[in-house]
Amino acid sequence: MRYSQEELENAMTELQSNESPIMGFFAALVAAVPALAVYLFFGQMSVILVLFLALPPLMIGYAAQFVGRCYKIKHRLPIGVLGASAHIFGCVVLQVHPFYYLLTPIAFMLSVMVAKVKLKRVDIWAIEEYEMGKINIPQ
Q1: Average pLDDT over residues 116-123
Q2: How far apart, in Å, are the Cα atoms of 118 and each of 21, 62, 124?
Q3: Which of 23, 64, 84, 130 is deepest in the core (most CB within 10 A)?
């Protein structure tokens, strides 16, 4: 299915107007506080599952997705760093086996992937056309 030039320009304009990487990062910072509190809660439990270690990076990523609405990878990388830092902090607090520190890249990727806004088909086409220079959007 091919979209008209006007539909692609409208979709790209909407994406760019909704995107707010700074607000997404601040939302991730705010979400990091309850995420780190979750690690303290897990510290009180006697059994730590690997699934528990994935919860705080997911919380950080969802907060950034909800507020930031970022679709570019370069805007989501600081959120991934924050998710990885929260994972390292959780491993230190929980005093887990050093093997769990090797899961830090997974925590990074979880935060980055979850922070991406869900794109519609017209949005994907608009991004591709914009990157190729076929549509011009005033900044």
Answers
A1: 94
A2: 15, 12, 10
A3: 64
